[in-house]
């Protein structure tokens, strides 16, 4: 099977497994301007306490160091736009956290993809290694990185989990896509804490028109990654959301094209859908473990979720 035939088969099998999009990029060193921008972001402390984002810069900026003989990066996107919603007026969660842990769901599908192709020399990732996932998704032609710093797929939106299959074979590579955000800055305007802000500078400044992201101000960071108290000026912006924040995505015009996902593992349980405000306030650690077994919500731990609940509901 030549590289074109194998590339087409990879994409066909990925679609059969439920991936919405699949593209292929040549494994190479990350573009210097992207490296410089990332280093500047880290140096400015905009990654907050997420020190793991500083680790393994050599591998992060050259994925060939993550796998001997790596030649191709297969990038996939799995839709998580919810088919069922928590009732209006009740405490809310970011859409990505309603079902089972996406790390496991995507990586299991990538392993199935490799098995279907008869491959035994590969590596599968989903937010689980120093890989610039959105960068490689753009290189693989899936979409572009929007002003909300999410990957946007044309006529589909940004509610997608990304994953990568690293392969030691040359394939047929896709062309990157340029941004179609235009002059829209709805996501920036919708951010309640100004974690997103338009870059300042003169017309010829490279930062002019770009969107800066400060994780320290982001409600997703504060309600998931932050292990301390949430500053009052930020917690008062939480509204009724007790885990994460989807406001920049909800404001994005491209998400009007999103379609409810049909992946069984990503559907919320009936118990979660039936939770009421008083149930959340009375949540025990045993309830938490049962309700979020195999869920990404466990990232915040019981103590973190209860902190969020009391900040938002008390």
List keywords for this structure.
single chain, 314 residues, alpha+beta, four-stranded antiparallel sheet, two-stranded parallel sheet, 13 helices, globular
Would you kindly provide a written description of the structure presented here, covering whatever features stand out?
This protein has 314 residues and is an alpha+beta fold. It has one domain (1-175, 183-314). It is 32% helix and 13% strand. It contains 13 helices and 10 strands. It has helices spanning 3-16, 32-43, 57-60, 102-116, 133-139, 186-190, 219-225, 232-235, 247-250, 270-273, 277-281, 285-291, 301-313; strands at 21-26, 72-79, 92-93, 123-125, 144-145, 151-152, 160-167, 196-198, 211-213, 241-243. It has a 4-stranded antiparallel β-sheet with strand order 1-2-7-4, sandwiched between helices. It has a two-stranded parallel sheet with strand order 3-10. A two-stranded antiparallel sheet has the order 5-6. The chain is globular and about 60 Å long. Mean pLDDT is 96; it is low at 201-207.
Quick summary:
With 314 residues, the protein is of the alpha+beta class. The chain is 32% helix and 13% strand. The termini are far apart.
Mean pLDDT over the residues: 96
How large is the share of residues in beta strands? Answer: 5-15%
Q: How many individual helices?
A: 13
Write down the domain tally.
1
**Helices and strands: which structural class?**
alpha+beta
The helix/strand order is: HEHHEEHEHEEEHEEHHEHHHHH
Poorly predicted tracts of residues = 201-207
Radius of gyration using CA atoms only: 20 Å
Tell me, briefly, the overall form.
globular
Helix content: 25-40%
Going across the biggest sheet, name each strand in turn: 1-2-7-4
